[in-house]
Amino acid sequence: MWHLRMLGHLMLIFLLCEADSTCPTESNPLTVHPPEVIGEYGKTVILNCTSTELEYEEMYWRSGTTTSEKEDELDFVGWSVPLSDWHVTAKCVIKLNNSAECSKDAEITVYKNPVKVNLFPTKHTNSAVVGRPYELQCDIREVAPVKNLIVRWYINNQIIKTDSFNNTSKTPVNTFSTSKVVLRKDQHGVQLRCEAQLDFGRSGPQLPAMYATYNVSVHYAPELKNPDNIVVYEGDDITLTCGVEANPPPAFIWTRDGVNMLENTNKLNVIQIKASATYSCVATNYLGSVTKIINVRVIANPATPAAIPTTEASTKKGCPLLLMPAEAVVRFGDPVSVNCSTTDVAHFEGMGWEAPFGGTGFEKSSLVTWKVENLEEWTIESKCYVTLNDSQCSVKPDITVYKNPVNVDLFPTKNIHAAVEGKPYELRCDIQEVAPVKNLIVRWYINNQIIKTDSFNNTSKTPVNTFSTWKVVLRKDQHGAQLRCEAQLEFGTSGPQLPAMYATYNVSVHYAPELRNNTDNDIVDVDEGDDVTLTCEAEGNPPPVFNWTRDGVNMLENMNNLSIIQVTSNATYSCKATNYLGNITKIINVRVIPRAAAPAAMPDPGATTKKGCPLVLMPAEAVVRFGDPVSVNCSTTDVAHFEGMGWEATFGGTGFENSSLVTWKVEKVQEWTIESKCYVTLIDSQCSVKPDITVYKTPDAVTVSLDSSPMVEGTEYKLNCDIINVAPQEKLQVKWYKGSEMVHKQRFSDPIVTPVNVSSTLMATSSRNDDRALFKCVAELHLGPKGPELVPAAESSPYTAVVYYKPQIQNCPGSYRGVEHEFHMDSLICKADGNPEPTLQWYYQGKRINASEPLTRAQSGEYTAKFVNSLGSISTTVHITIEYPPSFNCDKSYEVQADGKLQNECVPQGEPKPDIIWYKDGKQMSTPQYWRKHDSGSYSLKATNNHGTANHMLYVDVLYAPVFRKGSYTLEVTLDANVTFDCHAEGNPDPVIRWNYTSADNVMETTGGRQKNISITGATSTNAGVYVCVATNKVGSVAKAVTLVMKGKTRQFPRDIIWILIIILILITITILIVLYCSRRKKQRKYSLVSQSMPMTTKANGVQA
User: Fold this and answer.
1) How far from each other are the two terminal CA atoms of the chain, in whole angstroms?
2) Which GO CC annotations does the UniProt entry carry (predicted)?
3) Which of 202-216, 607-621, 650-664, 706-720 has the lowest mean pLDDT?
4) How far apart are CA 361 and CA 1079, in angstroms?
5) Is the CB of residue 462 less than 8 Å from the CB of residue 435?
């Protein structure tokens, strides 16, 4: 057979000479595993490439311009490919020789799950209308590849629509899906959901769906439940019910015989009815209206019965059962019990309670009690029944289960935090998780004065979220008013009196600037050279911006007050106050009064004389504190004509004296107005002069107070400085300080000399920075150059400002990692600044949570921190990751094919992601990537993270196709000889071996262990031929051949020599022809493909290379 092998190799050489560098698909020896890879962006995948051709020059992977290490010995090459490029490619290349190269691509899909899914109505209409299309849009952000995206739409978990996308972009995109639904009124409050999921088929990764929900309110016109004709006894009270359903809840109008009764509720209470009448109820909302007619017929009242059961008990007419209480109002989760007794003991056989919980069964007792320790159902179906001798009847208690609101929130509907004077300002009060809503009353207040009351017609018994709105028109004097909504469950006087839940909102009222004194033109007189302060006296909200001009020239001043130093000329000043609502202008005309000319000569700085009168006063001006002494000398300069002089005064006068110097002296000044003069009598005349005496007094007290409370951020406040008992007022100047900074100064011009009480005002807009700021005012008496060296002053005690402002987050992390069963949201440092001190509320998936409860691994996700005080709220999100120790949830045994990977890898759970170590036979090993046929065995896995360690034992059974120990061969047998040849193969699972041959009487198969033998007894020429052994298991099958050649007892040497010479001659001839042909083809540069019928060499006869 050796000549046949040589012939095959020569033919292969011939075919390779015919081949160029391309590679036919049928002859490609490469296999890529896995052939298709789907991986998340940023992760790494492992690719393996195997070849069935063992004779090659090199084999490697190529991705873009990057290549892996080149392999030239083994039949495979592996590579780790990072998925950091959306267009990543990977190609396995094998170079068979200088002229032949094959390659195979791995299909790689890089994906990214949506970052966010958002669901909202397309027309921003929060409510659907019955029977009309209502369109919603589902936005999906940053998803790739979008062609694998499936969007499913649900109504209450029932799928209604599926969308797919044709976009072939591989990079992340933003996309959307829309769905139009037509809803019925019984679908009010229905939950619509859109789910976005990347779908890669059954063989691809099963990724979680991202979803968003939207609860829609369904509006419909009012509808009548049923008409009524009512018969009632004269003098009875009656309640008429309109019995109309609608959404939004309708407005009601009641009439009695056509006369409007000015009632606007669903129910009408008629007290002590006297006469028959026709009542009509008109229910209207924006979708329509409906009218219900109720005919009430009044009949004469029968005689009063002799006995009536107590108000706490109830019996059913004709049924001798008494319930106590017949009606009960119970909080969800609380206990409840009702006694049931019979009044017909004579015919009594037994009684009991039928109920889904708390039932008693049939009892002989005439008193049975239905009792539930924790009432956790919203609809109670329980009844007490009695069996009498000839009948049976039952009664049901009226049980109302309630739940107080979880939260009440108040906010403006248009997110406008300030109202405008005279314009409607709408607020909305959200009440969350309340039941039953028909018993809910919402009251609206302004500064504790009730303005509006709302009730609800929803008959749902389970907790719902609802709301009430209110449009209010405010005045400017209501700036800073506190608006409040109170939500309270009311069950009448006999029911429980539950506390009201409330929320408040302090509203700022904006208005255009206005002048305080209602005059827009002022005249101010000022002495030449004096300082003056002009006040615009305009107020507005928000505080106006001021602009001052002088004779039409802009002065670039923007304060309410304008200080002018040493006025010298008349001028017209205008102040324009502006905010976004309007402006107003005030004109101030400043007139300057010229000062009198100074005298030509002065005796000295402290003396003065009167023109034509020879008298000199020293000092001519004096400033004296009330109660202090004062004296003034008076002398004459005309001694020649002098006869006498003296002082005339209300106190301290001297009388007429011959001395040319007289002194007016007062030990204690106790008058505010001093009338004193010095006179002189000359020979021919008399004259006099008066000193200028200023009496002053520092204030008894200076205090600062807030004109109205409280200070609220962004609103204007007014601080008053009260100066008590100060004189003279025209010398008074008040300075305002915030901390150490002077912020305002005010002078007074009233010429009152007696002590007065004076007030100064500081107007400013508060900010949160003003909280705890210290304000003070200083009252100074500026008495001129003759006054004390140190200006007399009195200072107030500091006033500590308290400014209320809404919360502002100071310190809250964007993410945090906590330990399972240990971490709770209360332990997270998340702070906000606000006044009043804000309270912190935590929300998860839209619901408020108990922040003191420890979290579990299933509760990782986005949490919302909401800080709330009476002025508003602010929210932020924190991503919480709950860490927990490792654990395994893997099988105990696995099967894997040789050179392959586990289909379902054993990956431990844990956070952070555990590190995993593999052990075999007690020795640590690297994590297996591809399993070899001798890797079967027991393995120990150890997973570790910060919080602990977990262990897992598993057995891996590596399966591989059968392999023969010995390949095909030829066996020569002498005639009549006995011969035995075997077939043995290794494989996992153990292979099944069978022989294929031409049967004969002298051929027998025997089995020994894992091998099968062929035994031939007395071989004959008919036994010559090919015997094929086939080994098979579930991985594959291989075959080998044993060629049996018969030879006679004498050597046939000459015949064999002849055949050998013939074959050698043929081979030499073929070889020469091939060489000549190849040389000719290379010269002509012609190439052709390898014949499709000639496979590349693999393993010879199944024998492992």
Assistant:
1) 20
2) membrane
3) 607-621
4) 108
5) yes
Contact assessment for residue 958 and residue 931, using Cβ atoms and an 8 Å cutoff: yes
Q: Of 506, 538, 562, which marks where a domain is finished?
A: 506
Asked if residue 339 belongs to a domain, the reply is yes
pTM of the model: 0.37
Residue 1087 lies in a domain: no
Using the structure block, give the residue that is written with the tokens 């958002």. 118
856 and 934 share one domain:
no
Domain termination residue (choose one: 459, 488, 506) = 506
Q: CA triplet 746, 751, 752: central angle to 5 degrees?
A: 100
pLDDT at 153: 93
pLDDT in tens, 199-215: 988 878 888 888 888 88
Q: 210 with 133, same domain?
A: yes
* One domain for residues 228 and 283: yes
DSSP character for 1073? H
What's residue 415's pLDDT? 64
Q: Residue 266 and residue 243: Cα distance in Å, rounded?
A: 7
Q: Alpha carbon 934 to chain centroid distance?
A: 55
The answer to whether the CB of 412 falls within 8 A of the CB of 426 is yes
* Closest-CA residue to 805 (of 708, 711, 716, 713): 713
In what side-by-side order are the strands of the sheet with 127-129?
A: 127-129, 217-224, 244-247
Burial of 697 (0-12, 13-18, 19+ CB in 10 A): middle
- 481 backbone dihedrals φ, ψ, rounded to 5°: -65, 145
C-alpha 490/C-alpha 439 separation (Å) is: 5
Question: 965: closest CA among 943, 948, 981, 949?
Answer: 981
Q: Which two tokens stand for residue 460?
A: 């749902």
Q: How far apart are CA 762 and CA 97, in angstroms?
A: 98
Would you give the DSSP letter of residue 787?
S
**Rounded Cα gap, residues 474 and 1082, in angstroms:** 102
Residue 212's H or E segment, with its range, is: strand 210-215
CATH number at residue 489: 2.60.40.10
- Is residue 770 in some structural domain? no
**Own/partner pairs, 65-68, CB within 8 angstroms, 24+ separation:** none
**What is d(CA 579, CA 512) in angstroms, rounded to the nearest whole number?**
6
Which stretches does DSSP call E strand in 227-335? 228-233, 238-241, 244-247, 251-256, 259-260, 267-270, 277-285, 288-299, 314-316, 319-324, 327-331
Token look-up 């159902």 returns 377
Confidence of residue 1092 (pLDDT cuts 50, 70, 90): very low
d(CA 1049, CA 291): 125
Place of tokens 């130093």: 565
C-alpha distances out from residue 207 to 110, 198, 517, Å: 13, 7, 73
Task: Indicate the number of domains in the chain.
Answer: 9
Is 199:171 a contact under the CB 8 Å cutoff? no
Burial code (b: 16+ CB inside 10 Å, e: under 16) for 471-488 equals ebebebebbbbbbbbbbb
Which of the residue ranges 607-616, 825-834, 1049-1058 has the most confident prediction, judged by mean pLDDT? 825-834
Dihedrals phi, psi of 952, to nearest 5 degrees: -150, 135
Domain residues for the domain of 566 are 514-594
Say if CB 482 and CB 427 are below 8 A apart. no
| Contact status, residue 796 vs residue 724, Cβ threshold 8 Å | no
Residues 521-577: tens digit of each pLDDT = 788 888 888 888 888 888 888 888 888 898 888 876 777 888 887 788 899 999 998
Q: In sequence order, what are the residues at sequence separation of 6 or more whose Cβ sits closer than 8 angstroms to the Cβ of residue 847? A: none
Give me the residues paired with residue 376 across strands: none
For residues 573 and 645, state if they share a domain. Answer: no
Instruction: Give the distance, in angstroms, between the CA of residue 23 and the centroid of all CA atoms in the same chain.
Output: 58
Report the share of the chain in percent with pLDDT over 70. Answer: 90
Quickly count: other Cβ atoms within 10 Å of residue 681's Cβ. Answer: 16
